[in-house]
Design brief:
This protein has 11 helices and 8 strands. The protein binds acetoacetyl-coenzyme A. This is 3-hydroxybutyryl-CoA dehydrogenase.
């Protein structure tokens, strides 16, 4: 199936990054957000990143302009009526996601594929909220989207082989590397990453080492580009806690118990980089 026109729902950090990589690969992209201000911020961010890429000689000025010509913004989800694919990147809340998917099921043409960028919610349950479950799939991009090569492609129990193949082909077309994953809590990425971050938080909580030293061990000892606590601040501590809760509940195994210090930071509003304070200060 040819995918030429895409809508991305949610103009936050992930949604804007996803819209950018689609447009850079030559697809026509509509970025959607309920909030005009969020939409403007998302599109502004894309423009700035492309300008920087021109300055660094990674892309030419005409390439930048071509990408921007392929990109438009809307606050009206009904504009998805002629899209071949919609990728949802809204807040991690099942009620909101199922509402979005139910609306998209009514708005989009019969052949359209509906994908979610959820980092942990069950694609199978999202698919079941639509009348086209075989055309629902997970496309889990990594942050920062323009830089990270991986897309986890998550097959709901209902996802058809045709849908999977179309999304795998598309992932390659946008110069990313697909990995096929079955729909289980945390998929592969967060099932491995989040317990590591949680364990790093336990080592701080138990006074084993300072956040700086924990990060140094993992950077210099394991060659990670960022230490786990810097990465946790970058992802958002609320997101980390949320994903640990999904793993804990989904597997019913105490090894996924979120660290009490992580809970305390989230309760304090210390959410990492976005709130100005997490394990580090960002003033
Ligand atoms: N958006 C777009 N581009 C970005 C960026 C962002 N937020 N942050 C950095 N970059 C780009 C920079 O512009 C730079 O490109 P240029 O050379 O063109 O300037 C390039 O990335 C390298 O950046 P820096 O030199 O500033 O810094 P760095 O070498 O430390 O790299 C990093 C930054 C790529 C983020 C690197 O630290 C890294 O790989 N960190 C780990 C990221 C990671 O683990 N991501 C997965 C998070 S988990 C997830 O996303 C899943 C989930 O569900 C929670």
């Amino acid at each position: 199936m040819a995918i030429n026109k895409v809508m991305v729902i949610g103009a936050g950090q992930m949604g804007a990054g996803i819209a950018q990589v689609f447009a850079q690969a030559g697809l026509s992209v509509i970025l959607n957000d309920l909030d005009q201000q969020a939409l403007d911020k998302g599109i502004d961010g894309i423009k700035k990143r492309l300008e920087r890429a021109v300055e660094k000689d990674r892309i030419s000025e005409p390439e930048k302009n071509k990408t921007l010509d392929l990109l438009s913004g809307t606050t009206d989800m009904n504009d998805a009526s002629n899209c071949d694919l919609v990728v949802e990147a809204v807040v991690e809340n099942m009620d909101i996601k199922t509402k979005v998917f139910k609306s998209l099921d009514e708005i989009t043409p019969e052949h359209a594929i509906l994908a979610s960028n959820t980092s942990s919610l069950p694609i199978t349950e999202i698919a079941a909220a639509t009348d086209r479950p075989s055309q629902v799939i997970g496309m889990h991009f990594m942050n920062p989207v323009p830089v990270m090569k991986l897309v986890e492609i998550i097959r709901a129990i209902q996802t058809s082989d045709e849908t999977y193949q179309a999304i795998e082909d598309l992932t390659k077309k946008i110069n990313k590397s697909p990995v096929e994953v079955e729909d289980f809590p945390g998929f592969v990425s967060n099932r491995i990453l989040m317990p590591m971050i949680n364990e790093a938080i336990y080592t701080v909580h138990e006074g084993v080492a300072s956040p700086e030293d924990v990060d140094t061990v993992m950077k210099l000892g394991m060659n990670h580009p960022m230490g786990p606590l810097t990465l946790a601040d970058f992802i958002g501590l609320d997101t980390c806690l949320y994903i640990m809760e999904v793993l804990h509940e989904g597997f019913g195994d105490s090894k996924y118990r979120p660290c009490p210090l992580l809970r305390k930071y989230v309760k304090a509003g210390w959410l990492g980089k976005k709130s100005g304070r997490g394990f580090y200060s960002y003033e």
